[in-house]
Design brief:
alpha/beta, nine-stranded mixed β-sheet, 309 residues, globular
């Protein structure tokens, strides 16, 4: 071969080899590189942060998530996982970039997984008309109403498909916990309560606690559910907890700022029934944003670490 063609062929072969090696490094086994696409990979806190795209069978669309993985101390090491669900308008990057969590999950030797908040690019009626419905606002439920029921199956995605995917490809063991903020706090509580025994612990920061009684929840349920008055109760932590005897209600670590602009109208933590642990922990002067998340995130990560190890 001419030198230029040989050089090009070698570069292609080297790239293919590198992708195969990288896939094996991620999973500890022979995993076809085509199973997913790594969009970004950067060194961070004695590990790597990656943004990944893969084809989802739940949403029937490409889905993206971010994952932080500490360096393994031996080839077959399996890490516990903390699944983080973000709030309205977020994607897979917001929590990773703004919350100050990576040093803490590294210190606790956890894998952190942050999915996007909805399918994207479908062009469904109304899915980009407002910040609190459609893209970036899927509410982590299983839609039953047209035209959303085919793709907006985020509950199955975050509670079944994505955990299985990261267990296969990213050195994650069986122990998992779930946490989130705002809409994601609602999602975290629902994922935990509707999958008894699957997740070791749950926590939430400024969560939507009673969506059947707030404008955000009523709007979402009216658009995503065929019979929102009935089905909405299945996606409401207050309703789910009230259906349990108090002795069977799990502990849920909740932090809530007293200066949160959504506290009275949208979040309604006062409607939660008594839990087996302390109720919501109110923090004076904090609002709904990432400065509040960054203030309390270390305590949430350490809380989950106790259950995961």
């Amino acid at each position: 071969l001419p030198d230029a063609m040989l050089s090009s062929a070698l570069r292609v072969a080297a790239g293919q080899c590198a992708r195969r090696v990288f896939a094996r490094q991620l999973s500890g086994a022979h995993v076809p590189a085509g199973d997913f696409k790594v969009l970004q990979r950067q060194r961070c806190f004695d590990g790597y942060i990656l943004r990944v795209e893969h084809s989802s069978s739940s949403t029937r669309t490409p889905m993206r998530f971010a994952v932080y993985q500490p360096d393994a101390r031996h080839p077959n090491e399996k890490f516990p996982m903390l699944l983080w669900l973000s709030g309205l308008t977020c994607d897979e990057t917001n929590f990773i970039l703004k919350a100050g969590a990576l040093g803490h999950v590294s210190g606790e030797r956890l894998v952190l997984v942050c999915p996007d908040t909805s399918p994207r690019g479908l062009g469904l009626p109304g899915d980009r008309d407002s910040y609190d419905f459609g893209e970036g606002a899927a509410f982590y439920l299983s839609a039953t109403a047209e035209p959303y029921k085919t793709n907006y199956q985020m509950f199955n995605y975050v509670s079944e498909e994505l955990p299985e995917f990261v267990q296969t490809h990213f050195g994650v063991g069986q122990n998992m916990s779930v946490a989130g903020h705002s809409m994601g706090g609602l999602g975290a509580m629902n994922v935990f309560l509707k999958n008894p025994g699957k997740f070791q612990s749950v926590s939430a920061i400024a969560p939507i606690c009673n969506p059947t009684q707030c404008p955000w929840g009523k709007k979402a349920f009216a658009g995503y559910l065929r019979n929102p008055e009935v089905e909405g109760k299945e996606w409401d932590p207050v309703e789910l907890l009230n259906s349990m005897p108090q002795s069977q209600r799990p502990p849920i670590l909740i932090h809530q700022g007293t200066a949160d602009e959504f506290l009275t109208e949208q979040l309604k933590p006062e409607n939660l029934p008594p839990l087996s642990g302390p109720g919501p922990l109110y923090m004076e002067g904090y609002d709904h944003g990432f400065y509040f998340i960054a203030t309390v995130i270390e305590s949430h990560i350490k809380y989950h670490s106790k259950f995961l190890k």
